[in-house]
Amino acid sequence: MQKTLPLYVTSGEPAGIGLDICLDLAKRVDTRPVVILADKKALQQRAEQLGVQVQLLDYTGQNQSSAQGELYVEHIATACDVVAGELNPQNSAYVLEQLRRSAEYAMQGKSIAIATAPVQKSVMNDAGIAFSGHTEYFQEFAGVQRVVMMLATANLRVALATTHLPLRDVADAITAERLTQVIDILLHDLIHKFKLSTPRILVCGLNPHAGENGYLGREEIDVINPVLEQYRSQGHDLSLCMPADTLFTPMHLKDADAVLAMYHDQGLPVLKAQGFGEAINITLGLPFVRTSVDHGTALNLAGTGQANASSLHVAVDLALQLVE
């Protein structure tokens, strides 16, 4: 029998809801193995705390499918016992090992995709690990010059020209070179991964009212629109800069395949207001598929039974869909 490659799910920060939502994956029946990277003891303890009946199976590399009520687990040991809701910097190396191992398997062709549960950036940095996020970590691991962060719901996709930057640094970061790299990746993956032959992309201006013809800023005139004009002249269906406060209205969005926002909090609040808990994060431009939940570690919900696992289910579903 031909071996079926797995999808790996990183369980993330063990004190948060990552373990809780990973346990919810036992409700699934998948045609290929879905494997959790986690400390098996911590996962079992969280299951007992939540009253979840689940059979944790060691993943051997030969398993073929995921059955309801079972979870395949590849064990990675934590440094210290895990207490729900209580961060411990000593377990940060364990979190990083999940990411390293999942990326290594993906790069080596030992998995089809990665789906990630949330991590706590602050505690990893407290532990002396310079860490700005999953997106940047996978970019560096894969050795690619640029990746694009895109969040999606059933009805809206929002890609970001810049990601985790202080707001005062955003304008300087929006260069013609960066925009060209971002748009190239966005077009490529919308066409080749999402199977959209001619994607229609709406582009947010950086400034209020998209600069108001230069009175509220010149980035649209001097940098952004000239890049967009080049793509439009090549036949790509991109808008020129639009005011973000009117772009995100049903009239404009009804025929759009994606929106390109200039910075993190320009586009993502709209998307999350529309579909929080049902949205997912996709890293475009990697040589492998990586999806993620749209929320954080929610330490106050860990171990309470109140965590919503829907975003992780959607992330797994999309990862499987993109590689078929």
Kindly describe this structure:
- Helix 3 crosses helix 5.
- This protein has twelve helices and twelve strands.
- It has 324 residues and is α/β, with parallel strands linked by helices.
- The two termini are 19 Å apart.
- The chain has a twelve-stranded mixed sheet with strand order 3-4-2-1-5-12-11-6-7-10-8-9, with helices on both faces.
What are the SSEs and their pairings?
Layout lengths: L6 E4 L7 H7 L9 E5 L1 H11 L4 E4 L11 E6 L16 H16 L5 E4 L4 H6 L7 H9 L5 E5 L4 E4 L6 H7 L2 H17 L7 E5 L14 H15 L3 E6 L1 H4 L2 H4 L4 E4 L2 H12 L4 E5 L4 E5 L16 H14 L1
Parallel strand pairs: 1-2, 1-5, 2-4, 3-4, 5-12, 7-10, 8-9, 8-10
Antiparallel strand pairs: 6-7, 6-11, 11-12
Q: Tell me the overall shape.
A: globular
Determine the fraction of residues in helical runs and give it as a percent range. 25-40%
What is the arithmetic mean of pLDDT?
Answer: 94
Oligomeric assembly:
single chain
Order of helices and strands: EHEHEEHEHHEEHHEHEHHEHEEH
The number of E-state strands comes to 12
Beta-strand portion reads 15-25%
The parts where pLDDT drops under 50 for at least 5 residues are none
Q: How far do the termini sit from each other?
A: 19 Å
Describe the largest sheet: 12 strands, mixed
The radius of gyration is 20 Å
- Supply the helix-strand structural class: alpha/beta
Short note summarizing the structure:
By secondary structure, the chain is of the alpha/beta class. The protein has helices at about 20-25, 40-50, 90-105, 120-125, 135-140, 165-175, 175-190, 220-235, 245, 250-255, 265-275, 310-324, and strands spanning about 5-10, 35-40, 55-60, 70-75, 115, 150, 155-160, 200-205, 235-240, 260, 280-285, 290-295. A twelve-stranded mixed beta sheet has the order 3-4-2-1-5-12-11-6-7-10-8-9, with helices on both faces.
